[in-house]
Amino acid sequence: MKSTEHPRFTISPYLVFVLIHSMQFGPEYLSMSNKPIQLAGQDAWISVILCGITFHIIIWMIYQILGQNETDLVHIHQQIFGKWGGGGFNFIFIAYFLLIASFEIREFIEIVQVWLFPDLETWPLAVALLLLVYYIVAGGFRVIVGICMVSMVRHFTILALFFPAAFFHINNLSPILDHSLNDIIKAGKEMTFPFLGVEMLFFCYTFIKTPKKSQKWAHWANFLTTVSYLLITLFSLLMFKSEQLSNEIWPQLSKYKFIHFPFIERFEYIGATAQILWVIPIVCFCLWASSRMFKIMFTVKQLTALPILLILVFTAVCLIPGRSRVEAVQSVLSDFGFYIIYAYIPVMYIINIVRMKVRRAV
Predict the structure, then answer these.
(1) pTM over 0.85
(2) Which end of the chain is less crowded, N or C, counting CB atoms within 10 A of the terminal residue's CB?
(3) CA distance 43 to 9
(4) What is the separation of C-alpha 326 from the centre of its chain, rounded to a whole number of angstroms?
(5) Torsion sign (Cα): 119, 136, 25, 193
(6) In terms of Cα–Cα distance, which of 138, 139, 141 is closest to 12?
(7) pLDDT of 344 above 80
(8) Cβ–Cβ < 8 Å for 206, 72
(9) Cβ contact 333:107 at 8 Å
């Protein structure tokens, strides 16, 4: 079953680079190095590289599945598992994306509450963010990709992490390979959550002009994410010891305290508020994918489903009161995302190979 969108709704293949990198490089980078460094110490950077390589393999599998079916995952589920079985899998992905959107918004609100306005209530900022998300998602897929393009300016704040170089300790990187392979793999498992986002290809494949040409751009996006996370992990190793990181929630924001300009005394305020550039693209894509699945499954307009999903996200955000609950949600998403990447996608790849061989035999 071949499924394509009207040309005016599609994007050029190179924009997949922006799309995937925006989905992968979320605000999780602020704390992503904590657990891996506690597990693998100075060898945590090896875990980042291994995780990046495995995601290249996953991207290749995704394109093999989509290229042979030439449609999105919603229809693939229905073809393989039938109407009810496919609908069940689609519901799981809807819940998954809605929970990611809720987590990202709550994480950003918590950063604002801790670093800027301790007395700020959760719901007013959640309402403001979700109204902005509605305005962007209502504009369509191309508008969301445009927001991702604008959000790329956030990399200027990453360059600010070089400023505390005077406080780096090169000795923190040695000895190399001092931890067991088991520890490095465990640290790599913890790195899975920050790398999540490539699964969005399953839902935007039909919105790409000549989608097969976009595969190299998806790999380049994952490469950039890997390099970015590698630098962040190395900077954390150079600046903090593993026992210090256990007391840091967002070590990357803490580094901004070392940056001073004559015209900006508290640079960490800029670093905290700039996280909206990481959050909005992810939330928009999650709501777009969820509402699109809702549209296909129930044959309703996407703009009709969107307000319902926004209300669900708002309710979920308000039900995540503090840091402990945020970490609990992150743990659930991390485990679920791990199984999607390393179990569900390989199984779907195998099923697709068998299905294609049977079809050719018949």
Answers:
(1) yes
(2) C
(3) 45
(4) 16
(5) positive
(6) 141
(7) yes
(8) yes
(9) no
